[in-house]
Amino acid sequence: MEERGVVYVIDDDALTRDALKDLVSSIGLEVRLFASPAAFLGSSRPDAPGCLVLDVRLPGKSGLAFQQELANSDAALPIVFITGHGDIPMSVRAMKAGAVEFLTKPVDEQELLDAINAAIERDRTRRGELALRSELRKRYARLSEREREIMTLVVGGRANKQIAGDLQLSVMTVKVHRTHLMRKMRAKSLLELARMADRLGIPIASRTDP
After folding, report:
1. Whose CA is closest to 31, among 6, 52, 10, 2?
2. pTM of the entire structure?
3. In this structure, what DSSP letter does residue 83 have?
């Protein structure tokens, strides 16, 4: 079952906050309201996919400045901007910095809901990728130093015989290590192992002839 999404609304206008809560709640999403970025940062947040609906003009700090602050923190979330005072350069800046959408008030309700759903799906994908990398790091940590060495050569395209020559091992020993590392990494194919190595950022030995 998919986790329920959470929408964080940051707007200094109470009427706007309440209206957005009624709208977003109508499609089954949890909504949390904040009058300022500081209030949002000082709050506890559930471990669930979510997004920010953020006003561009806020007291003390603009929404665009807050977007940059979030990008450099561990609280990064996809952002849907809403504004009554937007212009093209502002929207371009927001989108280049990763915003999902930049909407002008009065906001079309369906357009806003579509943007929120897209933002939550983006965050769900990001969270899934982070969870996968965390799991792969755990698997990789269980490999021996020799198995890691052989994994680097295998995903770099080296054949067992070449690896044996590189490491001064018997071909049978290489095969045993290769079998063990494939099992520990839970890789069903060389292609899957290569994708795992890419996600882990493991440097790949270039394919060359001995």
Report:
1. 6
2. 0.79
3. E
